[in-house]
Design brief:
Layout (H helix, E strand, L loop, with lengths): L13 H9 L39 E5 L7 E5 L18 E3 L7 E2 L10 E3 L7 E2 L13 E3 L7 E2 L12 E3 L7 E2 L12 E3 L21 E3 L7 E2 L12 E3 L7 E2 L12 E3 L21 E3 L7 E2 L4 E2 L5 E3 L8 E2 L4 E2 L6 E3 L8 E2 L4 E2 L6 E3 L12 H4 L5 E3 L5 E2 L5 H8 L8 E3 L5 E4 L2 E4 L12 E5 L6 E5 L4 E4 L2 E4 L3 E6 L3 E3 L8 E4 L2 E4 L8 E9 L2 E12 L3 E8 L4 E7 L9 E7 L7 E4 L6 E4 L7 E10 L2 E11 L9 E3 L3 H31 L36 E3 L4
Parallel strand pairs: 2-3, 3-5, 4-6, 5-7, 7-9, 8-10, 9-11, 11-12, 12-14, 13-15, 14-16, 16-17, 17-20, 18-21, 19-22, 20-23, 21-24, 22-25, 23-26, 26-27, 27-29, 28-30, 33-41
Antiparallel strand pairs: 1-2, 30-31, 32-35, 34-39, 36-37, 36-40, 38-39, 40-41, 42-43, 43-46, 44-45, 44-47, 47-48, 49-50
Length: about 725
């Protein structure tokens, strides 16, 4: 049966945390003595101490004396899993633990008045709301409150008023989307806050300003994507921070500032692409660091240096290929390094470890290692246990030192290889147990072997990085250089312009078209050499220009390609008249802009339009087109009459027609007047001469088809 409580200072090993994330079972050798809070601690019931303490128990409930992890002989009322829809009517002030998990309360109207309670379990009871802010006001002695796996969406200010002695608050696996600033106000003694599994997309530092006593904060399995500066500034006593199972891609450099007492940091199962080496420098007390299941491709030089950690886990990293020179430098307290189940880990640099005097256990099983460098033994003077099984080791000189260790007996061998009977090497596709190979069958030195650390051919776009890491094994240690293009030798002392070469890594930050070509890695020692080549093709870009609507004074262009619209602020549009040797006009693109119209252009003129990619202060031209504007009168949907003779003919025809109409009208009026005598006599005709002229028809003074009226829409024609 699941307990409502868990130990505040429960002991849990590093590997137990890892297993809770990945669902695996590991050896007892992985267990450490460090204290880590379990995300979902299990209850502890001491059945021999169970006994009835009252004869008046609620219907269908049990009343027993029960011991828990941190409590002895608590008088417990257990009403769990009996399909309650409302609170039972209980008023026994002797009760110290009240278990109500797995019921169907939905809305809690009022809690029973049990003023001596230390433990209250309301987990998995479909609770979506507490009807009053004063629900817990009479629970001043309560120390542990379990609201795990309910339907709570909002925590209002003062939601836990009255719980002045609460030490553990479990709100995991609810549906919290709104937590008000003072929701945790009054919890002055809170030490453990569990917010796992709530789908939170952000964390507000103000939540914690009233609970500065918290030492363990659990935020796993939410939807956090970014950790901003000073996010945990209100938690100076925080010792354990669990952020596993989020979507974290970005950690700002001061995100952990102020956490001087943080001992355990779990960042596993996120989307980090770089090890947060700078971000953890503010953690002087850090003891356990877990970075499993992220997207690291390599561990760079001095990524881990001058840290006081005793345990480090870099396992289940699907993209990890190599551990570079001096990756682990000056780690005086490191005793356990977990670096297993990295399915693409090919290579550990011979000088990966420097000033790591106390490392005792090294877990390298279930990787893709071709060799384990012989320098490891001298670099790790106190290492006594190595897990190397399930790696495709090469049957050559690189394993000579391992066979020698396996063959040693008694005190001659300092290093013990765990599960040695599972360590095999691959010789001409024949897998052989190392324990069955005699030392004289394997030479002490051999030519280099380059590892398949990069593809034979790949494509990239202008502005994207080119990263080729040449990895090689051999005894003596091989030296590496690059042959680029037509065979020019490039190495760390003679790098190519715009390229960085370091320990076999050939890196171009921003690819250009002239970076296309052949790249050959050469590894050599006194025994021979080996090469590995790649053909790189740099494409013009992921954005092209196509034309939209064009008129005599403007051109509309459309951006077409696979580039995200959110990244368009790295691009610019340049345009000018093609025939002129003049400067370009510049349009700075913005996010989500996928088309634009260039106005104020000249009619019947060719323009050159280009899209460019900005790299720092340099601009790379990706694509150009030439577009010609239309003639001045050539507008879509409009016709211009330009024949002067036609215009004059129309004017004359209209004038003649109007003249004839006027003549006929006057003639008809004159005829009517002659057919009768005016009744008032001839002298009454004089007032007719005073009729206002404005009442008469005036033919237009401007021709109908003037220059203004010569544009006739097709829809009207």
């Amino acid at each position: 049966m699941r307990s409502p409580v868990y130990s505040l200072l429960g002991v849990l090993s590093l590997i137990t945390i890892i297993n809770s994330v990945h669902g695996i079972t590991s050896n007892r050798d992985n267990i450490t003595s460090n204290q880590v809070l379990a995300p979902n601690p299990q209850p502890i019931r001491d059945n021999p101490l169970r006994s009835p303490w009252t004869t008046h128990c609620a219907i269908n409930c049990t009343c027993d004396v029960v011991s828990y992890a941190n409590y002895k002989n608590l008088k417990t009322i257990n009403c769990s899993n009996i399909n309650l829809v409302s609170m039972p009517n209980i008023s026994n002030n002797l009760a110290q633990a009240f278990l109500l998990s797995k019921n169907k309360f939905k809305i809690v109207q009022e809690l029973p008045h049990l003023k001596n309670l230390k433990i209250l379990d309301l987990s998995s009871s479909q609770i979506s709301k507490f009807n009053s802010h004063w629900q817990f006001f009479l629970y001043g002695l309560l120390e542990e409150l379990n609201l795990h796996n309910n339907l709570l969406k909002t925590l209002q200010d003062g939601a836990f008023t009255g719980l002045k002695n609460l030490r553990v608050l479990d709100l995991s696996y609810n549906r919290l989307h709104l937590i008000e600033k003072d929701a945790f106000g009054g919890l002055n003694n809170l030490q453990v806050l569990n917010l796992d599994g709530n789908g939170l997309t952000s964390v507000n530092p103000d939540w914690f300003q009233r609970i500065k006593s918290v030492s363990e904060l659990l935020l796993s399995k939410n939807d956090l994507r970014k950790l901003t500066d000073d996010l945990f500034r209100e938690l100076p006593l925080l010792s354990t921070l669990n952020l596993t199972g989020n979507q974290i891609r970005v950690i700002e450099v001061n995100a952990f500032r102020g956490l001087s007492k943080l001992c355990v940091l779990n960042l596993s199962n996120n989307r980090l692409t770089n090890i947060p080496s700078q971000e953890i420098r503010f953690l002087p007390s850090l003891d356990i660091l877990i970075l499993d299941a992220n997207s690291f491709e390599t561990v760079k030089s001095e990524e881990f240096h001058h840290l006081n950690i005793s345990e480090l886990s870099l396992s289940f990293l699907p993209l990890l290929k190599s551990i570079q020179n001096n990756s682990f430098h000056h780690l005086p307290k490191l005793t356990i390094l977990q670096m297993h189940d990295n399915k693409n880990l090919l290579f550990i640099h011979p000088n990966a470890f420097s000033q790591v005097p106390n490392l005792q256990k090294l877990y390298l099983h279930n990787n893709k290692l071709w060799a384990l460098p012989y320098t490891l033994k001298a670099s790790l003077p106190n290492c006594t246990n190595i897990h190397l099984y399930h790696n495709p080791l090469r049957c050559d000189c690189n394993i000579h030192w391992i066979i020698k260790e396996l063959a040693s007996t008694g005190n001659k061998s300092r290093i013990q290889f765990h599960d040695a009977n599972k360590i095999i090497c691959d010789f001409s596709n024949n897998k052989t147990l190392l324990s069955e190979i005699r030392m004289n069958e394997i030479p002490e030195s051999c030519p280099p072997t380059t590892l398949p650390s990069f593809p034979k051919h790949f494509e990239t776009s202008i502005g994207e990085p080119i990263s080729l890491e040449c990895l090689a094994i051999g005894v003596p240690l091989p030296q590496i250089h690059w042959l680029v293009g037509k065979g020019a030798k490039k190495n760390q002392t003679n790098p190519e312009k715009q390229a960085e070469i370091n320990n076999g890594l050939y890196y171009v930050r921003f690819a250009r078209l002239n970076n296309s070509g052949s790249y050959k890695c050469v590894a050599e020692n006194i025994k021979g050499n080996d090469t590995r080549s790649a053909s790189v093709e740099v494409l013009s870009g992921r954005l092209n220009i196509i034309t939209g609507k064009t008129s005599n004074t403007y051109i509309t262009i459309i951006l077409n390609g696979s580039e995200s619209l959110m990244l368009l602020d790295k691009y610019q549009i340049h345009y000018k008249e093609s025939v002129k040797d003049s400067e370009y006009n510049v349009i700075y693109l913005k996010s989500r802009m996928h088309r634009c119209t260039i106005t104020g252009l000249k009619p019947h003129t060719m323009y050159e339009l280009c899209i460019l990619y900005q790299i720092n202060s340099e601009l790379l031209k990706l694509h150009c087109i030439n577009v010609t504007t239309k003639l001045e009168g050539d507008k879509s949907g409009i016709t211009k009459i330009v024949d002067v003779k036609v215009v004059m003919g129309i004017i004359v025809a209209i004038s003649v027609t109007l003249t004839v109409i006027c003549f006929i009208a006057v003639a008809k009026r004159f005829r009517k007047r002659k057919e009768y005598e005016e009744p008032f006599g001839h002298d009454r005709m004089e007032p007719l001469s005073h009729i206002p002229l404005e009442n008469l028809y005036h033919p237009p003074s401007t021709p109908i088809c003037s220059s203004r009226t010569s544009l006739i829409s097709h829809s009207q024609a």
